[in-house]
Amino acid sequence: MKGRLSNQHTRAKKELRILFVEDVPADVGLINHELDKMGVPFRTQRVESKAVFLYELKEHPPDLILSDHGLPDFDGLAALEIAKRRCPEVPFIFVTNSYGEEQAIETFESGATDYVLKSNLSKLVPAVKRALREAEERTRLRHKEQALRESEERLQMVIQGVKDYAIYMLDPEGRVATWNKGAERVEGYKAKEVIGQSFATFFPPDDVASGVPEASLEKAARLGRVLNEGWRLRKNGTRFWSQGIITALRDDSGRLRGFAKVAHDMTREKEAEEEIQRLNSELEARVLERTKQLEAANQNLEAFNYSVSHDLRAPLRHIIGYVDMLRTSLGAELDEKNRQLLQIITKSATQMSKMIDALLEFSRMERAEMRIKPVNIASLVEEARRELENEIKGREIEWHIGELPKVRGDPIMLRQAVINLLSNAVKYSHTRARAKIEVGAMDEKDETVFFVRDNGVGFNMEYAGKLFGVFQRFHSPSEFEGTGIGLANVRRIIQRHGGRTWGEGYVNRGATFYFSIPKDAKEEK
Do the strands 511-518 and 447-454 form a parallel or antiparallel pair, or are they unpaired? Predict the structure, then answer.
């Protein structure tokens, strides 16, 4: 039979299935009439024997069972007992003619949801709605508990499947409550050996004596979670470096329920870190020793420079002075050959004095403190040209000065480098009737490249690697005066700025010398 009950249940089911255990069809009609007042679709099935009751439970599971208390062939309590075994979540309401206090007690003790007297059917719908609502709530809770149980089982499967990390729980007193396979592998204990044991079991005796385990848990309880690392002991007594997290677990009221510990064996990484620290200490010691050696070498160099400056210059001055005295005292007695020999001696001594000055200048450039600031290269080129006026007097030189950007560098050092390069171009182009000297720049991604080009005698590229060496000369002093220090000084200046130097040339077809300044040049410490 069909009818309607309430809109609340139509959302869960299109049609409510109600099973009646009733031997009076007229009573079923009255009950249906009462239920139909609520306007919810329902279908009823009346049974009055155990066999049919069992069949309906199996083939057409009901949403609600309404039963008379006493039937001729089938007792209502017997039906209740069967229903509790077969479908315990289905509400079971007794609808009977009379009910004494003892029967009511027996009904509820047997597990009935409620009972309603047929003489007062107006209470049936509220009882049904209440029973269905409670059944829905029980079903919802059961599903929630089932989902939670399945979630916990999956979590335990994941935790137990992790083999590289020790994952376990501690109770509020710090005793081991759970133990995964990873903990067994890392710590060396089987679960049955460690469950219930103190967290301090895994700490070295010194840490236990100083209260490190308790302090770790107290800090986790206070802060919520803490990094926990240090040397720990395995069951076999070997130690390992443990690194992990201890998290305090609290319920909704804030009460501490225990701790979760996740840890990993980081022994190899710790030993590697200690080895790196040892090597760094050794390196620092070597650097200190090397620094002392360099300081001693610098002191020796200072002494050498002093010796060169004073002890070598004095004999040279004596040589030049005595040659002048000899030339004056002999006067007309000197023949041409001896006069030439004296000139050679004077010229050689003078050249040696210039070389000593250049060497001292190179040494000072090596040790000079750098002061980095914006430098206008174009201004340095103009200053260098003015300084070279005496050397170029009477010569025809065609200058081509391109756009020269500013850079960051030491202005005094860069000025010397520019002077040396322009002087070099002027010197090696003096054999040309019309010399051409070009100065330009190229903007690169990380550096600015400058160049000085001339149309002079050039050089053989086969020897380009020796261009910037000390005392490296490709031409004899009789052809081109010089000390062989100028380009070496340029290279050292540019190196101290973090830049590069190189040259290109062809014999009798000129040469080009390049130097670069990084765009992020910083002051050398």
Answer: antiparallel
